[in-house]
Amino acid sequence: MRYNPTVPPLLNRRNSVLQADVYKWWKGLQRESLKTSYTDVVDRLFDLFPDEEHYSDGGLERCRTCAVVGNSGNLLRSHYGQLIDNHDFIIRINKGPTKGYERDVGSKTTHRLIYPESAVDMDNSTHLVLLPFKIKDMRWLISAFTTKHITRSYVALKPTINADMDKVMILHPAFIKYVYESWLHKHGKYPSTGFITIIFALHICDEVNVFGFGARSDGKWHHYFDRSLTHFSSGNHGGDFENKTMNELLKRNKIFMYKGW
Ligand code: C5P
Q: Whose CA is nearest to atom 3 of ligand 1?
């Protein structure tokens, strides 16, 4: 009931017009007034980055396996590295590194979902997938590959980024709204990057295995690579409801979850 295959996961020129309700919701997430028009930004985006319809090849012939790798500390000592690397797509999130953690998290990355505040450099084998929570995020992507003049949002931003321009993809704002409404029933202010990534994988893959999701027993979100802690249901995300939904997907065999330590 919640899965809607007609919602486009990725943006291109042809599907870029936003319905009024999508535009209104998306604009509501932005912390600043809009200085640039959305259509101008989209034009510039697809002058620079590939304007393609990706992954519309689903069907009986395709069996694409995907590993979605979250950043949870439960990956440490898991020895999941080989298992993760054996998938067709290995989708990582935000800053989650591989270097130094190969035995537990693997070494390959085919896709990495980031937003400007969570951006890291990546090598040429990886698709940078931008998660645009605001128009400025799209402007930052353009700037990072050209003028490098955008250096701040509510925090300092990387002015530039190492990534293959020909592999850049942009998540569709309508997809973010769909995840929020259809999958999370509007819990929290907007969905977490990790949860959006799982639903994205359900749309572009045929088998979805999830690694590195799960808070500590005290409810704090810990990382395998640093000591920062956040409370999973604090702030902007409805972490409890996200967990419930993931457990339901697990129960119904739509995803499989490797829970680590
Ligand atoms: O912390 P960060 O947002 O970079 O983590 C990426 C995603 O991994 C989160 O959005 C969350 O969905 C998931 N995560 C988790 N448990 C943790 C840490 C992260 O489920 N302990």
A: 193
Q: What is the helix (H) or strand (E) element at residue 47, kind and residue range?
A: helix 38-48
Q: What does the pLDDT look like over 138-196, one tens digit per residue?
A: 999 999 999 999 999 989 999 999 999 999 999 999 999 999 999 999 998 899 999 99
Tell me the per-residue pLDDT of 42-100, one tens digit each, with 9 for 90 and over. Answer: 999 999 999 999 998 888 899 999 999 999 999 999 999 999 999 999 999 999 999 99
Looking at domain 65-134+164-257, which of 3.90.1480.20, 3.40.640.10, 3.40.50.620, 3.40.50.970 is its CATH number? 3.90.1480.20
Contacts of 230 (CB under 8 A, 6+ apart): 220, 221
Q: Whose CA is nearest to atom 12 of ligand 1?
A: 194
Name the residue of 104, 120, 193 to mutate for ligand 1: max ligand atoms within 8 A of Cβ.
193
Distance 233 CA to ligand 1 centre (A): 11
Domain boundaries, the chain: 65-134+164-257
Hey, what are 82's tokens?
């080989």
What pairs with residue 111 in β-bridges? 91, 127
Ligand 1 centroid vs 235 CA: distance in angstroms? 13
Tokens of 206: 């045929």
